[in-house]
Specification:
Elements lengths: L11 H15 L11 E7 L4 E5 L15 H7 L5 E8 L10 H8 L6 E5 L5 E5 H4 L6 H5 L3
Parallel strand pairs: 3-4
Antiparallel strand pairs: 1-2, 1-3, 4-5
GO biological process, one term: pyrimidine-containing compound metabolic process
Protein name: Cytidine deaminase
Catalytic activity: 2'-deoxycytidine + H2O + H(+) = 2'-deoxyuridine + NH4(+); cytidine + H2O + H(+) = uridine + NH4(+)
Amino acid sequence: KAADHSSAKLSTVMIKKLIEQSHEAKKQAYCPYSKFRVGSALLTVDDRVITGCNVENACSNLGICAERTVAKAVSEGIRQFKAIAIASDMTNKYIAPCGGCRQVLREFGTDWSVFLTKCDGSYVEKTIEDLLPTSFSPDDLSDKS
């Protein structure tokens, strides 16, 4: 079971750096169909940053969202996170993860931060719990009552 790790101790400098890295990751997005670029930067509990971007496919339901950077981290043996920043080209509102991505992020705890950004670098901070309250969790699989 993954532990929760709050970003309460993240400095403003670290948050800005994470957001900048998510915007850099966005530049690698492969989105020839929607033209909707998304990047993410995932901060691990040991302060490593793992980046990712969305990857579309001609068969639309086979695309991969940027927030699935978690899979890249897991493949490297990392399962505990402090925060993730998500970036897009949207100017009028903050980018938010889709429902599927919220559930994937929730797998690794509820008390870590999700920074929803705009392309100008502004952001709002949420937790996984904020984005997916009363969620299904790994604990539910062991609760037989």
